[in-house]
Amino acid sequence: MQGILEIDAAALLRDPDRAIGARAPQLEAAVLRRLGHEPVSRILGQREFYGRVFKVTPGVLDPRPDTETLIDLVLEIVGAEGRHDDALTIADIGCGSGAIIVTLLAALPRAAGVAIDVSPAALAVTRGNAATHGVADRLKTVETRGLCGINDHLDIIVSNPPYIPTGEITGLDAGVRDFDPMLALDGGVDGLQIYREIANNIRALQKPCWICLEIGAGQHDAVERIFEAIGAVARHRRIDLGGHIRAVALKIHC
Ligand SMILES: C[S@@+](CC[C@H](N)C(=O)[O-])C[C@H]1O[C@@H](n2cnc3c(N)ncnc32)[C@H](O)[C@@H]1O
Fold first, then answer.
1. How far is the CA of 194 from the centre of ligand 1 (A)?
2. Phi, psi of 212, deg, nearest 5
């Protein structure tokens, strides 16, 4: 609760008995929210992701450390192809807070981004985070489903789509179920609905493109099959800190 008290860890260590003083009501309100299972990042309205602080509102998914696996995967692919300084175009389907696309644009100095979401509230948060991290001039935001209406030439498509099977949502931890937007969680009956939607959209692309996806635990084979059915070739899998295959990369028209 250092964020609420507006003190840093060093100040707390130096003076552990300091009076809470004028911030006491805010601290009490925050503790009550936490007792209601609200995640600390939501109480503070911000979350650190890949070394940067992102604004988080009730309209966006609270970005997760697991998603950093997807960032590592994309940056490894770009690095291995020697394209770090190329003018790549990257689309992020379901951008939420913008954690993925803003992080990638910050890491790749000449890349441009297309941040896509069905939620206007999410797109507004992405724009704010892009401005905070100095990449707004290389990012456009588009309100649409999947890649509908996107005509840009894309080098890389990234997505951390909603992938929880509908029937599993009621059993989720309260901090997720009651605070992350349903639109960010619900992946349909088998959790794979949006991967099928994205694969359908990708059929129309004419040029070679990487597809880098976050997936739920155990979904790797099924997701790869969906994209292999449209001609993509599965190239990489990456494991998260919990030991689950969390990110896959496929190449299409190669
Ligand atoms: C799991 S969240 C990911 C947010 C962010 N990319 C992250 O990793 O923290 C999924 C996002 O996809 C959006 N979404 C859901 N269905 C979509 C669709 N058909 N097309 C585009 N975006 C969609 C939701 O509004 C939500 O912001």
1. 9
2. -120, 120
CATH entry, 57-252, from 3.30.200.20, 3.40.50.880, 2.40.30.10, 3.40.50.150? 3.40.50.150
Residue with the smallest CA separation from ligand 1 atom 20 is 145
Reported as a single tens digit per residue, the pLDDT across 188-215 is: 999 999 999 999 999 877 778 999 999 9
Of 56, 62, 116, 118, best ligand 1 pocket probe by most atoms within 8 Å of the beta carbon? 118
Pocket test of ligand 1: the residue of 144, 160, 196, 213 to mutate, having most ligand atoms within 8 Å of its CB, is 160
pTM of model > 0.90? yes
Question: How high is the pLDDT of residue 1?
Answer: 65
Backbone angles phi, psi at 162, to 5 degrees: -65, 125
Distance 117 CA to ligand 1 centre (A): 6
Tokens read off for 9: 């860890």
Between β-strands 52-55 and 46-49, what pairing exists: parallel, antiparallel or unpaired? antiparallel
Q: How far is the CA of 210 from the centre of ligand 1 (A)?
A: 19
Give residue limits of the domains in the chain.
Answer: 2-35, 57-252
Distance (Å, rounded) from C-alpha 47 to C-alpha 89? 26
pLDDT tier at 157, thresholds 50, 70, 90: very high
